[in-house]
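Can't paste images in this forum, so I'm doing it all in text. The chain is below; anyone willing to post the predicted structure tokens underneath?
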Amino acid sequence: MATTAPVHPVDEVPPVRQLAVFGLQHVLAMYAGAVAVPLIVGSAMKLSAADLAYLITADLLVCGIATLVQCVGFRRFGVRLPIMQGCTFAAVSPMVLIGTTGGGLPAIYGSVIVAGLAIALLAPVFGKLLRFFPPLVTGTVILIIGVSLLPVAGNWAAGGQGAKGFGEPKNLALAGFVLLVVLGVQRFAPAFLSRIAVLIGIVVGLAVAVPFGFTDFGGVGDADWLGISTPFHFGTPTFHASAIASMLVVALVTMTETTGDLIAVGEMTDRRVEPRTLADGLRADGLSTVLGGVFNTFPYTAYAQNVGLVGMTRVRSRWVVAAAGGILVLLGLLPKLGAVVAAIPAPVLGGAGLVMFGTVAASGLKTLAQVDFKGNDNLTVVAVSVAVGMLPVGVPTIYAQFPDWFQTVMNSGISAGCLTAIVLNLLFNHLPGKAVSPAKAAGPDEASVTA
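Text version of the structure:
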């Protein structure tokens, strides 16, 4: 009797109830980051409350579509791994500069469309660079991703950057309570409940936050039931050379960050990313970014927040994240639902974020455990890369006196650390030099295995 081949965990389709619950958990994990970019850019441009709300709903809609493209895929678009997509923070500073001094939203959207096309065209080139990402580099990058996200969780736990009462003990107490709930559920609850420990922590934290005055749902009543984003709502895109140049630099940064995230998820799900699948994932990024320019939002990339959630819950199905994409589409079409999610206070997200982002860092250490550190310079590669990656995280203004293009690249700890790890791995393990270890004498492919 014929036997069917076992389904890889990435391709498993859980029951509908689990799809909805696990998907909602992913949405809650990334929602604050997803709406932050349109809020920051719109506020800097002094847009009206109605226009800000429009930016947010458009962003959520395209987030959902981008996530579906990445997870489900079609033809040569989509990595087909559990990857959530969202607006990249690397583009915030250039977009604010373009919007306030270089032509407003139409100029932003023109440069975003060009950047998206460039990402799609360059995707095969980046795919061929995968051999320069051995465990030494990928483990270092994953570690940097996790550690660089921890300040985000810390800001949430303290009440949200710029919030009134930032750092008050009650905020940290609520975040600590959510953290304890997440840990308690993961340790003592049945298997299914332990997989939604983050969701349970957020729900319980929200239930506690409401009576203590951390939040209210007053904005829900004011929100519309239905909101549909239309192409070029803010006018026909305009194309300025300087704006396009700065956004192309952002495109290279986001491609580097996305490469690290895709490799990280591949490691966590036991489905290693190959050059072709990496190119497919980056091509989906490019398509999503073009859609962002058309539908009044911004460049898109893989969201590292959700990488941690995959590692923590061990739910590896891409269909779970596809369900999250469907929920985001609904939030983008139904502003009232989005207002409900937006009412979750920052400290609740902070408590959950500490676990998720710490999990990403721990996954990087797990990957580095495969690396041989004896008789070679691999420890130096890790040490310097982490140090360079953490500089802009610990000292945000360290590159304030440098040109804008340099700031765009180096102000992202992830891209700075990733580029450093690649260059140092080439320097110490690929280029000919003093013969101190087999890794040094090996060719690029052999050195990659050793590293």
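The beta strands are 85-87, 300-302. The two ends are 45 Å apart (CA to CA).
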